[in-house]
Amino acid sequence: MISRRELLRLSSIALATAGFSSLGQRAANAAKTYAVGKASTVPVKGGKTFSVAGRSILITQPSKGKYRAFVAQCTHAGARLDGSRNLRNNVITCPSHGAKFSADTGAATSGPASSALGKVKVSVSAGNLKVTF
Ligand code: FES
Q1: Is 79 in the pocket of ligand 1 (CB under 6 A)?
Q2: What homologous superfamily does CATH list for 33-132?
């Protein structure tokens, strides 16, 4: 017969193996929300790249009041995407090799990149942009 203590020990090993090593670790991996800046600084059909918690985040406004956010890194070879320089009329164009992405969905619309930009959750509150990742 297995003791209660042994059962708990074996359960903790099983949980650790399954990736649930501790509640503290899970909390450390939880998404955080960051204040970015004024929504009014992002032009309609354009965008702006912000530095947020050490990451470059490209926020676009495909139509008035509708915001999208992406990791500002080309999925072809990692070039940085600058919203002010590389985004016109809802098309993000990579400065390195010319891949094009939708400013609404982040989808790659022209090579050499074939994968969509990484999406980031964005919200607006009282005219201020917030992102969560
Ligand atoms: S790094 Fe963007 S197209 Fe190559």
Answers
A1: yes
A2: Rieske [2Fe-2S] iron-sulphur domain (2.102.10.10)
Q: How far is CA 12 from CA 18, 24, 68, in A?
A: 10, 14, 41
Whether 88 lines ligand 1, by a CB cut-off of 6 Å, is: no
**Stated pTM of the model:** 0.79
Torsional class of 37: left (φ above 0), alpha (ψ -120 to 50), beta (otherwise): left
Q: Dump pLDDT digits (tens) for 53-64.
A: 999 999 999 999
Q: Where are the domains of the chain?
A: 1-30, 33-132
Cβ–ligand 1 distance for 113 under 6 Å, the answer yes
